[in-house]
Design brief:
- By secondary structure, this protein is mainly alpha-helical.
- The chain is built from 9 helices and no strands.
């Protein structure tokens, strides 16, 4: 992790002013959304007390909070995605300059050949770019959690502690799934690199392939590598998609206990 930060931080540092704006926009998005539950609670109270003035103002405030949230979310996501594009282009520019200055013996001895180099230029940097785009969530969601946590403490601190009891279980499961995904992601990148190499060999050597009737050989090599790519990709997808149902199942159990607790509190008051 420290190596990744050391390599990629110079790329992000050039855009630090934009990243500060992205961070502030994400904070405002979370704050706007976190205010909605409180406004909804006050609106329900206004309906119960037949307060016509607040019953008119509060829906307008709720709509305004969502409009403000949507506006800041637009700038938040736009700049984060555009920064990731600029970083990806700069990485490809640097990689291209590196390729042009490499010794010829490197190209001859490189296992994956020029196809592997093309794959690293396109596919690997594309994965890095996708990771940069995920920074938008990392820079926004913690504030949502923080504001929501503060609001829950304001409502009922016992209830908040009860909810937090299920958080370590969900976090542990998601961490284990994440480690498994990272393990197969490396194999998947290597499979894509080999797939690109076979494709390049087939296209560059079309005349040779057709002259010696090697179409079936190249086709079988491509099919075998494609199956290996799909095998590792299926494991990655399976682990990514399993995190949702597992976390939702645990959350449903926590919500069940939570509803029992709330019901007991209400019944006790009566």
């Amino acid at each position: 992790m420290s190596l990744i930060v050391k390599i990629l931080w110079p790329e992000l540092r050039a855009h630090r002013h934009r990243l500060i704006f992205v961070l502030l926009a994400g904070m405002l998005v979370s704050a706007s959304k976190a205010a909605v539950p409180e406004l909804l609670g006050r609106m329900n109270h206004a309906w119960e007390t037949h307060d016509a003035t607040m019953a008119m103002r509060l829906p307008a405030l709720i709509a305004l909070s969502w409009i403000v949230s949507g506006g800041f979310r637009y700038f938040h996501m736009y700049w984060m995605r555009f920064i990731s594009e600029m970083v990806a282009v700069n990485l490809r520019r640097r990689l291209m300059n590196k390729y042009l200055n490499l010794n010829l013996s490197f190209f001859q001895n490189f296992v994956s050949g020029t196809g592997g180099l093309i794959s690293r230029m396109l596919n690997d940097i594309g994965i890095i770019q996708g990771g940069f785009e995920k920074l938008a969530d990392i820079m926004r969601e913690p504030f949502m959690i923080l504001f929501s946590f503060g609001y829950l403490l304001y409502l009922d601190w016992r209830l908040t502690l009860f909810i937090l009891a299920g958080a370590p279980i969900i976090t542990t499961i998601l961490r284990k799934i994440s480690r498994s995904v990272r393990k197969y992601a490396k194999h998947n990148q290597e499979s894509m690199e080999d797939l690109t190499q076979i494709l390049k060999e087939s296209l560059d050597g079309t005349r040779i392939v057709q002259s010696f009737n090697l179409q079936s050989e190249m086709r079988s090599r491509f099919e075998a590598q494609a199956r290996e790519f799909l095998r590792t990709k299926s494991k990655i997808i399976a682990r990514e998609e399993s995190s949702g149902p597992i976390s939702e199942s645990i959350t449903s159990i926590v919500v069940f206990c939570l509803l029992i607790y709330i019901g007991q509190q209400i019944l006790g008051r009566n």
